[in-house]
Amino acid sequence: MSSRAVPGARDQVARLLTLVPYLHHRPQVRLGEAAELLGTTPGQVLADLRVLFLCGLPGGLPDDLIDVDLDALVTEDGTPLADGLVRVDNADYLARPLRLSPTEASAVTVALHTLRTGSSPETVALVDRVLAKIERAVTAGAEASRGPGPVAIATEPREAELATLAATLQRAADESRQVLLSYHVPSRDELSERVVDPQGVVTHGRFRYLDGWCHLAGGDRLFRLDRITAARVLDSAAETPRRPPRDVTAGAFAERPDTGGVVATLLLAPEASWAVDYYPMRAARPRPDGSLEVDLLVADPQWLDRLLLRLAPHASVLGPPEFAASYERAARATLDRYR
Asked: Long-range contacts of range 56-62, CB-CB < 8 Å, 24 or more positions apart?
């Protein structure tokens, strides 16, 4: 007699994800057969089906929920009937093709690329076919959203483009091919063009980054995807050795050594808090009145002056004094133009 693990919620979800498609395509399945398929007991499958009875489409009305004929699966005293036929109705939507949102497609793409690394040639070929289908679907969806006619408004308009970009850059990394990036550098407020040896796409918080060796900077860099204005995969092979992309989930950004510049401390009113999401802040400290005290690495004082003028009157310099003086001069010069 084989030992069985104590069932839990995670195991039950895994069984239901296997059981529902199986039942949908095989209407003549007995309770004992389903238990054998899942490696469990008829009683456990019956308990799973009682949960399935409460699942369905949003709304929760009877016509929205999956219908399971539970009476055919138990005897009069409630004992599971192994020979009972499992009948599942009102689940036709399970046969519809799965539609992924851009965010979901991006997450699946990154997961597939992770699976691809170190897999057998057969698995790599299978993963490549799935990635190609997802990339075509995402591209088609992005093109369709720009076509005529009604368009559904997404919360992140660039999400489809970023998903396509992530898939393209990850594929370039897998194939060890260089990419040519047009990249906006916020600390200098300039658009730069650089050749990069990509290592992979990683995620930190709300943003995705390309990890790679930048030939312009002469070192490893992380490029935020929403700041890449153009990307082209080159025919040239990457010159640096292939390595796994860096794990940035534990706060690797804070651990990076300084590449030059001076840390400026700013006070941002709530109206200027959007800058925290856009610019690479070293730290952000909330104040009781809703304002933020932030530390920002500045490579060019003139860039900081332009940023503060853009945030005015909702930002001020707390230190160092030379940045405060520079901003005051820039503000006076700007006011003089209107006199």
From this structure: 56/90, 56/91, 57/93
Rg (CA), the chain: 28
Helix (H/G/I), strand (E/B), else coil: 328: helix
pLDDT tens, position by position, for the chain (339 residues)? 344 444 466 777 778 777 777 777 776 788 888 888 888 888 888 888 888 767 766 655 555 677 777 788 888 888 888 888 887 776 666 656 666 677 777 778 777 877 776 677 778 778 888 887 777 776 666 555 544 433 333 334 467 788 888 899 999 999 999 999 998 876 556 788 999 999 999 887 667 889 999 898 788 888 888 889 899 999 999 999 888 888 765 444 444 444 456 889 999 998 888 788 777 788 889 999 989 999 988 877 887 888 888 888 899 999 888 888 888 888 888 777 766
CA distance 186 to 3: 59
Sign, CA torsion 133/139/141/144: negative
The DSSP code sequence of 160-223 is HHHHHHHHHHHHHHHTTEEEEEEEEETTTTEEEEEEEEEEEEEEETTEEEEEEEETTTTEEEEE
> CA nearest 269: which of 308, 299, 296?
308
Contact 220, 264 (CB under 8 A): no
Per-position DSSP letters for 85-139, written without gaps between them? EE-EES-GGGGSPP---HHHHHHHHHHHHHHHTT--HHHHHHHHHHHHHHHHHHH
CA angle in degrees (0–180, nearest 5) for 278-283-286? 90
Contact at 8 Å (CB) between 144 and 152? no
Structure tokens given for 287: 């104040």
Any idea which architecture 262-336 has in CATH? Answer: 2-Layer Sandwich (3.30)
| Domain limits, the chain | 9-95, 104-147+157-255, 262-336
Nearest alpha-carbon partner for 300 in 291, 308, 288: 308
Rounded to an integer, what is the distance from CA 225 to the centroid of its chain?
Answer: 11
**Exposed/middle/buried for residue 183 (C-beta within 10 Å: 0-12, 13-18, 19+):** buried
